[in-house]
Structures are given as C-alpha cells and as structure tokens.
Amino acid sequence: MTLKLNLLRRDRAAEARAVTVRRLVIAGWTGRDAAATEAHIEELEAIGVPRPAAVPTFYRAAAALLTTTAAAIQVLGTDSSGEVEPVLLAAGAELWIGVGSDHTDRAAERAGVSLAKQLCAKPVGGKFWLFSEVADHWDDVMLRSWAVAGGERRLYQEGPAAALLRPEELLERYRTQAPAPPSPETAMFCGTLPVIGALGHADRFEMCLDDPVLGRSIDAAYAVEVLPVVA
Questions:
Q1: For the chain, percent of residues with pLDDT exceeding 70
Q2: What is the per-residue pLDDT for 182?
Q3: Sign, Cα dihedral of 216, 131, 187, 69
C-alpha cells in the first residue's frame, strides 16, 4: 500500500512523500497502567469480546486497509466504532509518528479480534512527525477523539500518551515476537484509551494528536457510511 504523506521535521519544510507500507500491525492492550488496561478489556468484555491471551497482543491486518484520503469509509451495519491511536511508521531508517483510527467491527470482534480488525478501513492522518523530535516529551503528547452522532458532537476519548506503552518499545516487542523479521516498511497502531461514556457507532469520527511542548497537532476526521445488512 502506498500512502501520500507529509513528513514534518522542525528544521525544514514539509516533505511530500509517497511511502510504501508492506506490513500493518495493530497493537492491542498496550496500557502502561494495569488497571486502565483492565478497564478497556472489561468495556469490550461487556459487549462480548473475549479477553486477550497476552498483553500486549499484536494483530496483523492487510496494509491495503490503510487510507489517508478517504473522506468517508463504508461499514456494514452500525456495530463498528473508531479508536484514536498513535501510528508509528518505519520508513527506511527513520521512525515517524502520526494519528489514526483502528475502526473495528464490534459484532465481529465477538467472534474473533483478528477477524474484526480485517473488516474495516483504517483512516490515518496525512501528516507525520519525526519521532525523534517528540521522543523526549512523548508522555506529554495528548490523544483526543470526538464522536458525532445525530448532529451531536461529544468528546469520546482523551488522555496522555503516557497511558500507553511507548511506540518504540512496542515495535521492539513485536520484533522479538514476529515469526519473521518485520519489514522496514511497517505501520503500527500503538493502542488506544478507554472511551468516555458508551462505546458505540458514530456518523463521523474526529481525532487529534496534540503536542503541547512544541505547540503543534495532527488532526484527521472521516465520515462513516453505513451499508445495509442483508440476510
């Protein structure tokens, strides 16, 4: 999958680059705080999703699911929802960080998490920061998302990156567990935060990665087009 991205460094103009991603990894259950991780497990258990066998867990999904240009994604029925996540991109010898949504079919998740991860597109913001420029203050970076349903916009997730295992640590753990050496052209979703209120479908999902230290943010949004479920 080739993504058209703007790669941002502090000391130069944005670089527009077509980046090929050959491997998409979705890291789950990545909270640093055991209680917070348990809370996310329990909120999914409440809708029938089984507990993971390991924490964290690394799910593979098709790289073709990634999109930076879709104003809307199409999903089957109203059982899916978005999740704001940091997205770590290994492009050549450098690591980049952006924001994306691990949009997931919750009904299918009850049958199998790997299956559910494969069923929905994974929208990603078109801007990425050089990770080394935020690594020393990564814990101060904020993740936020908003769900828009029935014309009402509500804060859906909010919290610091400090709540999650660091992206480079997750990549290293994956490298030690992968059955084959990871491709250097890898994108990894780095986990999410518990939702505020109820987990559920929205007509539109908005997300933000905010760096209060350097005073910049990456924002992205997409609409959700529901396809009918035909028996």
A1: 98
A2: 62
A3: positive
